Amino acid sequence: MFLAVAGIMAFSASIASAQTEAAPAAEEMSAADLLSANAEIPLHQALKTKFIEGGAGFMSLIIICLVIGLALAIERILYLSFSKTNTKKLLNDVEAALAKGGIEAAKDVCRDTKGPVASIFYQGLLRADQGVDVVEKTVVSYGSVQMSEMESGLSWISLFIALAPSLGFLGTVIGMVNAFDAIEAAGDISPNVVAGGMKVALITTIGGLIVAMILQVFYNYILAKIDGLTIDMEDSSICLIDVLTKYNEKK
Questions:
Q1: Which among 61, 67, 60, 59 has a CA at the least distance from the CA of 206?
Q2: pLDDT in tens, 179-233
Q3: Which of 29, 77, 132, 198 meets the CB 3.0–4.6 Å disulfide criterion with 33?
Q4: Which residues lie below 8 Å from residue 189, measured CB to CB, with a gap of 6+?
Q5: pLDDT category, 251, cuts 50, 70, 90?
Q6: pLDDT-above-90 percentage for the chain
Q7: In the chain, what is the greatest distance between 2 CA atoms, to the nearest angstrom?
Q8: Do residues 191 and 15 touch, judged by C-beta distance below 8 A?
Q9: Whole-model pTM?
Q10: Burial class of residue 202 (count of CB atoms within 10 Å of its CB; 0-12, 13-18, 19+)
């Protein structure tokens, strides 16, 4: 990336030094006139124009990365949101069910509750007759399974985070190559000859970086939700072992 930026800056400096003709009258507009002209263009129209100028091929691939990455991220966020369980209420219900109806009543409570914590409780209660040590090992093992299910799809999101800027940098390189091909064909280094390739090079890079930043925000948010659910699973699993220990002592 740094080499590409340095090359663009050096190339732009050579263009400025080689230019000997006066700038056109359109380029002599004041900054206020340029701002007022840009303000009249709607945002969606400006984005559409930049998309076309950046090259439909590479910009389409970058947009596809954004769409698929956002779809996976939203699916994970919804899954994790529905997986959230009121662990305190679940523990109280399990303890009350153990006191009234024993292990089978506690399993019914876990079976009727959604979320990974309830699933871990249910797997542990299935082996409650084999001792607390077996229940503890089962809870730990099944907790790893639930962690894998919560992290499903994150590898694809991280792939699109890395792929989007890579496609942008590839478009930058191809744009620079096209600019040099145009110079070679025209035998001139005037800005009009190389402007198209330079524009493709810059727009694709900007698009790839923007897509990567958007997906990175969603990725970190998903990781934060997974960390919160993991802490709940660990705390509630310890509490379940304590509840079963007290239940066995009363028996």
A1: 59
A2: 777 777 766 666 666 665 676 667 788 888 999 999 999 999 999 999 988 888 8
A3: 29
A4: 14, 15, 18, 183
A5: low
A6: 16
A7: 98
A8: yes
A9: 0.71
A10: buried
